[in-house]
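To whoever picks this up:

The parser on our side crashed when reading a file containing two proteins. I've narrowed it down to the boundary between the first structure block and the second sequence. Both blocks are reproduced below exactly, byte for byte. First block:
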Amino acid sequence: MKIPLYQVDAFTGRLFGGNPAAVCPLESWLDDELLQAIAAENNLSNTAYFVPSGAEFQLRWFTPEVEVDLCGHATLASAYILLTHLYPSRTEIRFHTRSGELRVNKGDDLFTLDFPALPAAPCDVPPELIEALGMKPQEVWEAKSYMAVYESEEEVLDLRPNMEQLSKLEKFGTIVTAPGHTADFVSRFFAPGAGIPEDPVTGSAHCTLIPYWSDFLGKQTRLAHQVSKRGG
């Protein structure tokens, strides 16, 4: 069996930046164990698989260790392959996923993703989270992941979390964020329990970051910068 495989750097305009995703177009679904094994072999933060469903597509995402409910960069990467390589005459792709319908539109020089908002709520600060991060944030919120809000971009950049401790927390991952110098806000994202110590650029985390910073800044349009090593 031969399966096409593309590797796409998403959320970047430069080589070796953004978040690399593997994209595998399929004619029909394979066994879940095989999908997981391929993702583990690729050893990227996410491998996306899509299968045609009429004029639309079913889409799934796997980290090296688990299947996930939502992944932004691998959705963008899948749409890029579909709209530039496989169906270049089309301008919109609709995906059916665990998180509902996701739409991606192609413009002149940009792709636009329509994703669900996953707003967070304030929560008590788990002492295990503070110990794992090594620096106390101003406040902690929770949605699917914890979100630790810091005072400055420098604090976010200086964090050196204990990944083993983070992997034991009950949430899927941990977002850290602060106001930015050249962007409205910066962030980093850690999900070692799902096989992703630090994700380079995390579209799904912005489903939580955007509602928070929109309310905090009173702005409907924001520039976000994920300040990982690759950046995006």
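<<boundary where parser fails>>
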Amino acid sequence: MWSAAATAATLAILLAASAVAHAAAPIEGSWLTEGKSGIVEIFRCGGGDGLCGRLAWVRIKPSDNNPQGIDNRNPSPGLRSRPLCGLTIMWGFRADGAGHWNDGTIYDPQSGNTYRAEMTMRPDGSLGVRGYVLLSLFGRSEIWTRFAPPIPPCPAR
């Protein structure tokens, strides 16, 4: 029969192993957005310790009001003709513990708004992305999934 101390020790070892495996999961790579409207490539930037993300692919439907796939909702008129594909939409993320990054900024090309943001690697291997105004309480979250197949040509219609 297991003693309470042995059970607690075993549980602590399993939790520690889980945390190490969770921390070891790389966040860099390609992620399919929750609505399957884009693939974001997350990469190291800013001297190697920060994380950024760029649009590697965007879905353009036949009925889309932006068939050219440009940044037409940008609040700066001079930037409205730049292509969405290749556009850096995330920057400044810093690691804050195992599987969590904060102090980031995310740009939403669908609205033209920019938000503070944080990311969390979830136990199932998906990525929780939360954009917010002022406090994380006032925001919106999405769950992104790892995208492994070759990225389709951009823009896709």
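After patching the parser it read the second block fine. The longest helix spans residues 4-24. The beta strands are 29-32, 38-45, 50-58, 88-95, 100-108, 113-121, 127-132, 139-146.
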